[in-house]
Design a protein that fits this description.
- Helix content is 11%, strand content 38%.
- The protein is mainly β and 409 residues long.
- A hairpin with a 4-residue loop joins strand 2 and strand 3.
- It is globular and about 105 Å long.
- This is Right handed beta helix domain-containing protein.
Length: 409
């Protein structure tokens, strides 16, 4: 077994590939460090001293049959990595989580400063647990430029987040699925902030095809919720005991057989004011549903259906309200015939340019180009330099030898 024993302020591993069969895992690096691991996490439990940090950079993991990182974490940074066909790669937990706290109470984050940047989770799963790619408790966790593709789990197909502060920026959740709830993600007791993030073609066996967020603050700006579906209800997003705001969020063709479930945005309850501003709803009916005591404000948004079908309150059509003191409040919205078509997604979602090979390492083309350039230089050297320099010398030597034979003594 390969054992990392390190006494230092930080540990950083870079440029390493990891491959595994059914039983063992082998590490390969420039130094040809090798080792075998049997059914245990590769890395675990970052020490919680303030100066200790752990970083994974430009690493590639293929078909890892157990978590790459499992345990608690103080400062964990993962960047420019690929996790493919692996089981629950990142599982950050603490025994102190699980007890729900009121929305306004201060949460002490036992796991601190978790950062994932420019990383890909491709066909990762956790079919017996929650969170197919990432499970995190009590974290300040940041996802920047992270892609989740075909992740699968019981709940929260790609990510399952509990009691944390979560930031999503420039991320993609594509074709992720869950057996029960939260096709792409589930967040509980979290302060969630999402910007320019895509939830596309995710699915849930029960409810919340895109994601579910309960108890906390939910803020989204300029995000896309497209073509998600759930079998029993809430094809898009489901919110419970939530406050916050959704600004310039685009909803398109989110589906569920339960038509009165708010196919794009279902609000079970609100903890405080919730604002929906400048959002676009296309492809379906009953876009928003909520109870009659919800504190919700819907303004400057666009619905491609008639006014009486754009939203429901307890399953019944709700007439448009123009009284800002009456809650729920609807004002200055646009309806069928006044809205533009749904914005198109970036080309990569139509071409499915996501899936990476299961076991083949990424080819470092720049190295091949350098080798090819060196070979060309060698050929040119042999072709031009050697004849130009050595052939005249050989000819001169032969001439000198010939002249020496003609000298008379």
């Amino acid at each position: 077994m390969l054992i990392f024993l390190c006494i230092s302020y930080s540990l950083r591993l870079t440029g390493i590939n990891a491959y595994t069969g059914i039983i063992n895992a082998t590490f390969l690096s420039k130094r040809k460090i090798t080792g075998q691991l049997n059914s245990n996490p590769i890395f675990t439990n970052v020490p919680r001293f303030d100066q200790i940090s752990f970083s994974l950079h430009k690493m590639q993991f293929y078909e890892i049959a157990f978590s790459v990182y499992r345990g608690f974490a103080h400062k964990l940074s993962i960047s420019n990595c690929i996790f493919s066909n692996s089981i629950s790669p990142i599982h950050i937990s603490t025994s102190e989580s699980g007890k729900l706290k009121p929305i306004n109470s201060k949460i002490e984050y036992k796991n601190q400063d978790i950062s994932l940047r420019d990383t890909i989770f491709d066909f990762c799963s956790s079919l017996s647990e929650n969170g197919g790619s990432v499970y995190a408790e009590m974290c300040k966790i940041s996802f920047i430029g992270v892609e989740f593709v075909h992740s699968m789990a019981q709940n929260g197909g790609a990510a399952y987040l509990i009691q944390g502060k979560v930031n999503l920026e420039g991320c993609s959740f594509y074709k992720c699925s869950s057996k029960i709830n939260g096709g792409a993600m589930i967040a509980k007791e979290c302060k969630l902030s999402a910007k320019k993030t895509f939830f596309v073609q995710n699915s849930a066996g029960s409810c919340s095809g895109a994601f579910s967020h309960s108890t906390g603050i939910s803020n989204m700006i300029d995000c896309y919720i497209y073509e998600n579906k759930a079998t029993k209800g809430y094809g898009g997003i489901s919110l419970e005991d939530i406050a916050g705001e959704y600004i310039k969020v685009k909803f398109n063709d989110n589906q569920s057989p339960v038509s009165e479930g708010g196919n794009s945005l279902n609000i079970i309850s609100t903890a405080d004011d919730f604002f929906v501003e400048e959002c676009v709803f296309n492809g379906g009916i009953s876009y928003i549903s909520y109870p009659n005591d919800a504190i919700i404000h819907v303004t400057d948004s666009c619905f491609d259906v008639n006014i009486d079908k754009s939203h429901t309150m307890n399953g019944d059509p709700l007439p448009n309200s123009v009284d800002p003191f009456k809650k729920p409040y609807w004002g200055n919205n646009y309806y069928f015939g006044q809205c533009s078509p749904a914005p198109k997604l970036p080309p990569k979602y139509y071409k499915e340019l996501f899936h990476y090979t299961k076991t083949a390492p990424v080819i470092e083309w720049w190295k091949l180009y350098i080798i090819l350039a060196m070979f060309v230089c060698l050929v040119l050297f042999l072709y031009f330099i050697i004849p130009a320099v050595f052939f005249p010398l050989i000819a001169d030597g032969a001439k000198i030898r010939g002249e020496s034979k003609n000298i008379k003594i």
